[in-house]
Amino acid sequence: FSKGVGNPKENVERLVPETGRPSNVCGIGAALLWLPGFLVGHGLTMLWRHGATPTGYELTYQIPTYLCNFLVGLLGLWLLYRLLSAAFGVRLALLTTVGILFGTALSNYAFIHANMAHWVSAAAAMAYLYAVSRLAQAPQSLGRWLVAGALLGLSAMVRYQNAALGLVLVGVLWQLARERAWRVLAVGFLVHTLAALIAFTPQMLAWKAIYGAWLTNPYGAYGARVAGFSWNLSYVVWLFLWSPLLLLGVYGMVRPMPKRVPPLLVVGIALALLAQLHVNLSMPEIGGYGVRRMTDFFPYFGIGIANALRALEQRWGQRVSVGLVGGSVVMNWLMLAHFYLPQLYRGSFHMG
């Protein structure tokens, strides 16, 4: 799609000359994940419409769809809890999961802006990380390669930049190469790649219908910035100002991990986070409440946060970890209140 413009709003509102259809910069993955809730809402609307033609915006549509969104996101955090509990124990896993949910800007997209894709995108991203962690335990299992690949394709279909999460796999591939397990590496990587492409096929079908091409860049010149290194470095400052708990994650990532955490998995997580940071630094604006484009990957900081809390507890006891997480929760919700309550008072509620 070479005729894109620098303003993404114009890409949303324009008609595509090749097909005559309205352009759509967004992936269809979130809509597919919300579909069960929407179908429930459609059924309720058909029962209660009293002859009126539904618009799709009735509360009978919205409430089941948003509830579905919330439950999908909770599934992602449950996978984070399972991953962390195996390595750090139940208490630290629960504390870290609660901190990420209630003590970071991800709260905004879980509880307030359920009409945006970031909450389910975080769940899809976390599902891929969990699948890769299980794959690392049994790389001989083709089923685990298949599941991981399918989840990567689904994540990319929710938000395209999630495709870069495939870097999490680098650690597994490197370990297999060190062990000279070339057949497992080659066959597994092929299965993973094919599964990702097949899972991403619905998005390519949508692009074909809208743009007349199987592969395209819906963001046009706006999205092409990612290929360069024109970084908006203030993004990093705002990232940690909105969610200072993430600084614990950075600290924990560079400290020695428990033996139950494969070092190469940590390397893969770090590479995936750096790739997402590059994508978001390349955008000219900060991007909404809590630098929202990065909130999708806050669960990836979980392993670092849990490790940091473990290290701090070994030196100062459990009170310090509870205090840090509790303080982050209080600060986060004070910021949410400061941001939204004046808008509600004025009747001018805006998207985050």
Describe this structure in words.
With 352 residues, this protein is an all-alpha fold. It has helices at 8-13, 29-48, 59-88, 90-102, 106-112, 118-137, 142-158, 170-178, 182-211, 221-224, 234-242, 245-253, 263-281, 292-295, 302-316, 318-346. Helix 8 runs antiparallel to helix 13 (263-281) and helix 15 (302-316) packs across helix 16 (318-346). The longest helix has 30 residues, at 59-88. Residues 1-6 have low confidence and may be disordered.
State the order of secondary-structure elements, H for helix, E for strand: HHHHHHHHHHHHHHHH
Strand pairing plus helix content: what structural class? mainly alpha
Strand count, sense and barrel status of the largest sheet are: none
Rg calculated over all Cα atoms: 21 Å
Net shape: globular
Q: Give the CA-CA distance, first to last residue.
A: 28 Å
Strand content: under 5%
Low-confidence stretches: 1-6
**Fraction in helix:** 55-70%
